[in-house]
Structure formats: C-alpha cells, structure tokens
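I hope you will forgive my troubling you with a question about protein structure. The record follows directly beneath this note:
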Amino acid sequence: MKASNTRWRDRLEGDIPDGLANEIYIFETEIALRKQGKIDEKVFAETRLRRGVYGQRYDNGQRHDGLRKRKLAYPAEGLLKGPDTLWDAPGMQRIKIPFGGMNSRQLEVMAELAEEYSEGIAHVTTRQDFQLHFVHIDDTPSLMRRLAAVGITTREACGNSVRNVTACPLSGVCHDETFDVTPYAKGLAQFLLGHPDAQDFGRKVKIAFSGCAHNACGLTAMHDMGGIAVVREINGQQKRGFRFYVGGGLGAVPYQAKLFDEFLPEEELLPISQAISRVFGRLGEKRNRARARIKFLVNKLGIEEFKRLVLEEREKLTPDPAWTSFLSDLHATDETPLRLPAPLEAPRPEGFNAWYATNVYAQKQPGYVVVTVTLPLGDITADQLRGLADIARRFVRDTIRTTVEQNMVLRWVSEGDVGAVYDALKTIGLAQPGAGTIVDVTACPGTDTCKLGIASSRGLAGELRTRLAEKSVRLDATIRNLRIKISGCFNSCGQHHVADIGFYGVSRHVGGYTVPHFQVILGGQWTENAGAYGLAVGAVPSKRIPEVVDRVTSRYLTERAGTESFQDFIKRIGKQSVKEMFDDLAQVPSYETDASFYSDWSDPREFTTGDMGTGECAGEVVTQVEFALAAAEREAFEAQVLLDRHEAQTAGERATAAMLRAAQALVRIRVPEIGNESARIVTEFRAHFYDTQLFFDPFGGGRFAQYLFLAFEHAQAPFTPESAHHRIEEAQLFIEASYACYARMQTAAAPAAGG
C-alpha cells in the first residue's frame, strides 16, 4: 500500500496547484511531528480537522468491509474499545464539494479512494460533501493528493473555518430561480478558502445560496451567511444582487437568520463576506464553544449594531481585485447538453412511472430534465460510483451534483433518454423512486460512526424507509410530500428542526437499563428556505418511533382542513393534543416483558448498564428525582403551549422555571434540604455538578449547564417570541442532560447499592 501511495504521489504532484501541494506536504510533516510528540495534541487536532480528518467511534457492534480488509493493521479488539486517538484506528475523511458540483472523473477517483482507503462506500452528507469512513490518518496525505489532482480539496472541510459552500442543485435549470447562483457560490468558496481573515474563528461558518425565496433550495435561513438571488432595476438597467442573511444556524438551539441587506449588490458579496468574517473573528466568542457561532454574536449585538460594525469594517478593507474578477466571467460555470432534446419514448419499462413521478424534474430549458439518483442513507458503493460516472458520460456533459438531501442529480438529460437512463441506473441498483418524498429519509451518521451519537439515526431511518417504501403506492399525495429528518443527538446534523417530522436521539434510564429514545419534533418548515423550526413535543422509545409516524400522518390525513399544510395542522390542533397522541407510546415495558426496547435499530446489543441495586433509601431518592425531572419536562412543554398562544413572556418564564426545577432535582441528591430559592439552587448546582464536572458528558452536559447560568443571570430580561423559543429549546436540552447525569450517578452507585 505504501509503495502504491508513493507512486501516486510522484505521478500526480505536477497536476496539483502549487499552493495546495504545499498544504498537503505541510500536513504530512505535521503528522510526523505529532507522532514524535513535537506538536501538542490540541493544536494538531485543529490542524487535522481543518483538513477534514475526524476521529470516529467503533462501538456500534457492526462489522464493516473496510475493517475486515484492514484487520491486520487494526485489530478488532482495539476497534471495539473505541480508540482514544487516530493512531489507534481509522477515522473519517470529509471532502468538500462546493455547490455539489462534480464530474465523471471525480466520481471515479472517489470510487478508487473508497475501495483503497475506506470500506468501499462513500457517503453524501446534508451539506453536499462526501465522507469516507475508516480511513487511517497515515493515508490521508496520499488521499488528499489524488483528490487535488482532479480539482477537489479537503481543506477547511471541518474545524473553525468556512465549511463547504452549498447551493441549490437545480441552480441554472430551475423554473422559479431569479438567476443561476452557481458562479457566486463557487466564487465565494474560492475566495474564502484559506483567506487570512477567515482563520481566527471560535467556531465554524456555513454559507448557502438559493436562486429563489420560496422553495427549499439553499436553506439560507439556517446558515451563518445566506444569499437569495434578487434583481433590481437601477438607472434603467437590471442589476443582480442578493437578499443577504446572517446569523442563522441549527445545532442544539436553532436560530433563524436575520436580514442583513434587502439588496446586496453582486460586487459587494465577497467584500461584505470578508468584513463579516473579520468582525466575527474579532468579536466572536473564543473560550466557550457553545456560544461561539455567528448567531450568538448577532443575537448579543442585535442585527443593526452587527450590521453597523460590518459596514464600518468594510470601509477599512484594502480593495482586492478578487472581489469582482469572477464577475467578468459568470458564464464559466454554464452548462451545455450532450445530446439533442427529444420527446419521452414509449413503451416504458416496469417501475418507470413510479420513479419518473418522484425522481424527474423538467428543466426550464425545453426538452431537458434533471434526474435525481436516490441514495438510501446517502450511501453509494465504489462500483455504483463508477457506474454513475459511465452513465454521466453517456447521457450528459459531466453535469452532476450532490444534494443536501443526500442524493445526487444528473442535469441536462434529454427527455428522450430518460428511459435509457432509468434502465442504466436500475442495472447498478440506483433506480429507487421516492426522491424528495417521505420515503427519502435524511439521517446523520449517529451511533454508527459519530462519537457524539446517542441513538441510531441511520438504523431508524433505514427502518422507516423500508416500511414507508412498502406502502408508498398507497400513500396519499399529501403524506407522500412530507419530509422526515433524523439526528442521532441534539446537534441537528440531520436537520431535524426543519423537517415536517423530525427526531433526535436521547436516552432514558429504566429499571437499571439505558433505553434508546428519540425526541419527536413536529411542524418544522423545509420550504421557504427552511422557513420555520419545530419544537420537541416529547421523548418516545426508539422502537415505537414508526408508530409515531403512522399516527401523526394518519391523523393529518383524516383531520386536515382542505389543503391545510402539515405545519398549519400541527398549529391548529395544538401542542397539548399532539402530546396526548403519543403519551401511551412513551411508556417502556419492563425488560422481562419485552427486551427489544432495550436495544436500538440495526444494533442487536442491549443498552444495559447492568442490574441496579435498589435499597430502600435509594428507591426513595429515585422516585423523587425522576418525578421532579418529569415535572420539569412537563413545565417545558407547558411553555410551548403558552408560546403557541402568543404569550411569549410567560412562556419564557415557564421554560426558565423548568430548568430550575431540573437543577433542583439533582441538587436535592447532594443537598436534601435545598429550598425553592433560585439563587441558592443555581449556586449549589454550580458547586456540586458544574465545578465537579459531574454534569459534563460527551453529549454537551457542560455546555447545557451554561443555559441555566445565563437564564438566571438574565432573569429580568423581557422575552420576545424568538427568545422564548430559544429558552424553551435550552430548557429541553438542560432537562435531557439532567436525565443523563442522573443515569450516570445511578450507574456509578450500582455496586454499592445492593450491599
């Protein structure tokens, strides 16, 4: 393998831009220095993350072809323990694909790398990236060189940097777009890549472009920076620009982006983005990562003050020819068809009509269509990548894009070729219908490979996809067009907040066992560029989530008023009615009654922590703490109901009270006589749970403790609907962290409890 890597490096070095070749060489040197102990691990971690190199987990009980292939180098027993460093076992390589644009040769290289360095599978993410899992860090420089030789970089695919710049995959061919945003997405991505003013962030920055305001497109509302194409007539001429937004983001607590400029002229796109980067780098939080995104800075300063600082910074910038040089050749990203337009031919093969109905979009250019290649769970094998490259060469002129729904599209397919394309896709196993429907479930990696995963998002997504696909032909069109999105933890990598039906992984302690659960989130809005965020309505055991989907979709189908949207339906029936719909599903049978609840989807192992001893005193404490946490959860839910009634102030106060109640429940374990005084609850919580780090865990307990402290510190601040929404999200996360903390305390006490 090493000899082969050397040959590839020698062959490709001349094909790589000098700057990028030097970057990869520096990284290779840093790997060697880290092995020698000459670079601090924390410094090296940011270095490798900025090259897209992650660690990953191995404790999901699954075996992978990639691991079997490399088992001599990485023994199974080491993998299953969950290695602490990337030297012990392979990790994950993220690969940036700006605006999702790819060509056939790039697909083939991705296939080669997946086979040689990974498990033979490439994964498309919700940000149009590719990821390869089970890649050893020693192999990453060679992998990076081979990607660079075909115009792909991994630089700043992670870390505190500008991540992949995304854009609508229909840009340039969409009926509703104002203009093609592709050259702008590409121009900004290239400008900010490695830019000195984009290197001193406290956290990541995500940017998206959309050609129109009303469809999902680029999902600009949930990004740190986002541009929606608009035109204005100025001095009798049509002028391009962007409705520019800043300060959005999902994560544990989602924020809607704020309008920065109703019309940002195209020539100001790059300098304003540079100025925003400078302001964020200078004023953004650096020490507390939980508050280090642009959204928190905008929220702290207010959008008007933030804008004033940015415009002030803009005036200080030294003019840069790169700001506008790309505007002189906006047609550089234009695409042309390979084949002449022709009408759709008959007869049509079996299964074609169902696939055509969901996977084919008529372009604004007559006679041409976009074909969506559905990738269940975002996965595509090396052989399928090669097959897709061949199909692209045969029918289109390398006009391929990845999508934020973890699929791929072929653009500029002559309608007369659609039947042949379908047959070719079917041959390589990529002709599944249902793209963009309820069957097309989005999921993050979850417990399969992510160190932060709590529940199996991919396992649940696979189960839901199978069940929904079996009855897809019977699904009413209203149901078919809903979106389901799943995250394995609070962090919303699966974008659960903007789904009609969303889930994120949590856990509960039941009878000495840890039971995988998912919080149910309803009423998010995928359209209007992620126009609204849903709120959690309660946790349900993982094994009962399919019943949740059945119930809520059936009720919507039978009770909706006319053409009422799902979001409007959820608002109309109210949060209390929604919660009651699932109350019985929240119950967990005992382990002896049904052990299946105590394992997760796609993972046969039990989530048990062992039989817990329960003496009389312990039994009393368990009852009190769990009862109090349940009461806190109810109070947070009541805050949602109040918010729905437009009582923002009371809703925010109720959510704050819910956090205090949860903190009090834990404090009572250490200080039984604790009263109801807020100041003392917070003080004792800090002393016994925060300063001791007892509340800390890999899933964010330390971060969520800050929500309590900030809520108490700003207890007198008035609530707006938006800030009340944020406080409710924070309360729910704090309560979940309290449940997790209490479960750890039970586990730690177990050996002594029976004695």
